[in-house]
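lol ok so funny story. i was supposed to be doing the assay writeup but got distracted and ended up predicting the structure for this chain instead. priorities right. anyway since i did it might as well share w the group, maybe its usefull for someone
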Amino acid sequence: MPVLLIAFIIGTIAWTGVSVWLSARQIAHVRQHRDRVPADFADSVPLEDHRKAADYTVARERLAGIGTLVDLGVTLGWVLGGISLLYGALAAWMPASLGRGVAFVVAMAAIGALLHLPLTLYETFAIEHRFGFNRTTLRTFIADRFKGWVIALVIQVPLLFACLWVMRSFSGLWWLWTWLGLLGVMVAAPTVYVRLIAPLFNRFAPLENPSLRARIENLLARCGFRASGLFTMDASRRSSHGNAYFIGFGRTKRIVLFDTLLDRSTDAEVEAIVAHELGHFHHHHVLFGLLRSAVITFAGLAAFGWLCKQDWLLPSFGIPWRDDALALVVCFFLASLVGPPLTLAGNWLSRRNEFQADDYARKHAGAAPMISALLKLSRDNASTLTPDPLYTLVHYSHPPVPLRVQHLREGQDAALEPVG
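and the output, tada:
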């Protein structure tokens, strides 16, 4: 077995082992604190809700652990012969062409989606249903998956054709042209999603609550923020989880509030949540995130550009054919080994950004409404208040609610301290 393949298998198994170990820590830590609400929240979080959050976290983590092992099995299956088997089957009836490469990548993606479908079904109709969150019918679930697959084909197949054509036509610098194309896609994606894709899954309507609308518009004016619209989304069709988000650039920026959030929150709490999202824009987190993604993509594609043209790459994985699509797939497998460290760094930056956005919300909407909103979101989404610290460090893109509440309270106390 080639050395590169052995190293890849060892690395993949090692990362999987770390992931399973962290998952076991999370489950043990949450279960250990299941029957006791943290002292700072004993007066605001009922023990019943705390236990529900613990049980929900454990159930989801166990399923995620199964998913991790499935991912390992699928990956090993592909690199230990599955890639050659699938490509050989396509080569038997398709001539060598860009179309064969595209068909190969699409077939791999379809097989992966089908293998994970049982886990998604179990999550939606077993775990989410058991804890009272699921409102999705089987018909809606099937329709969502079908629309998602169609959209993926419509968008990704032309992009894949273009990438493989550039690889064939521009040889050495194909990766640079590909990066420029992907950069354009990343910039256009939010607008395309808002205008064309999101309405296929949910209904969006202008916010009708006049007092809340006036309150948020006043907040936007104070913060010097312009949005193309303030909308509600019928998230309750599929789930009882509450949330809100901003999306888009320039004149296409939209503020979207889940109807489930509005049903359970006061106007002051919704204002605080919107102020938090405004904080992300104030600190240019969205722009910096785009730039960070552009830099990582540039570096990754530059590495791909070198690897894809090495004669030893495909034979190192036991692949007897030469095809740019095969080389790309192998590069993506190799890139998965550097994914965990990048995710760790990205999560650290994201948690820092969340604290900055919380500070902005405290300044413009007050600490008390933001704390109240966080506790309600934690309760309504059954988010545990007692995650394992090491698991949090690796996996959490948002700080745990207790740390965010503590940060807000400390900021409030500092603001009240007399000067001099």
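Residues 137 and 238 are 8 Å apart (CA to CA). The mean pLDDT is 90.
back to the writeup now i swear
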